Every structure is written in C-alpha cells, then in structure tokens.
C-alpha cells in the first residue's frame, strides 16, 4: 500500500522485506511502516504521531527525511529508526 502526497510525503507499509507474513518458526512478523518527508518535517511528524496513537507498539515506524530537520522531528514523534539524506533513503 502506497500513499503519495504532493508535498513530498510518502507512507509505505509492508509486512516484512521478504514478502512473507510468517517466519520459519511460524511467528507472525510485525508490520513495518516507512514515512518519507522533506522540508521541515511537519507533516511527517503529524503522520508518525497519529500512527503511534492508532497502532500497537510492536509496529515499527522508520522515518526517512530528506534533511536532518525532517528526520529529527519524526524521531521526536516516536519513530523507531530514522535516516537523513538521499543515501540513507536509498540504502534503507
């Protein structure tokens, strides 16, 4: 599921990178959500805050910011991990 917004914000949700919903031991893997934001990170911060309020704590939220300010604001909104810049976004 991908959502595209005109202000350079993308939210991507997936079960896991391998596309499988269960591990070898039969355990279900937690959902991973990536939030990509640029500029000041205000919209990304709001999205992360709302996701944290609505979803369980085992959902992992990764903040991808096009600059350090955007990443910092999403991390302060309780994202689990974050990366800044083009390389961090491409590698993650």
Defining key terms:
92 residues; alpha/beta; five-stranded mixed sheet; 3 helices; flat
Q: From the helix content, strand content and strand pairing, which structural class follows?
A: alpha/beta
Q: Specify Rg, calculated over alpha carbons.
A: 13 Å
How many strands, what sense, and barrel or not for the largest sheet?
Answer: 5 strands, mixed
SS summary, helix count:
3
Percent range for β-strand residues: 25-35%
User: Runs with pLDDT <50, length 5+?
Assistant: 4-8
SSE topology sketch:
Blueprint: E1 2-5, E2 9-14, E3 32-37, H1 42-54, E4 60-65, H2 68-76, E5 81-84, H3 85-91
Notes on the protein architecture:
The protein has a five-stranded mixed sheet, sandwiched between helices. The radius of gyration is 13 Å and the shape is flat. It contains three helices and five strands. The longest helix is centred in the middle third of the chain and has 13 residues. By secondary structure, the protein is of the alpha/beta class.
Task: Write a short abstract of this structure.
With 92 residues, the chain is an alpha/beta fold. It has helices spanning 42-54, 68-76, 85-91; strands at residues 2-5, 9-14, 32-37, 60-65, 81-84. Residues 4-8 have low confidence and may be disordered.
């Amino acid at each position: 599921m991908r959502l595209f917004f005109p202000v350079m914000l993308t939210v991507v949700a997936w079960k896991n990178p391998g596309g499988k919903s269960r591990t070898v031991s039969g355990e279900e893997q937690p959902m991973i959500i990536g939030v990509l934001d640029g500029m000041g990170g205000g919209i990304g911060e709001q999205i992360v805050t709302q996701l944290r309020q609505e979803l369980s704590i085992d959902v992992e939220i990764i903040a991808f910011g096009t600059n350090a300010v955007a990443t910092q604001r999403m991390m302060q909104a309780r994202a689990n991990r974050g990366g800044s810049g083009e390389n961090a976004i491409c590698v993650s």
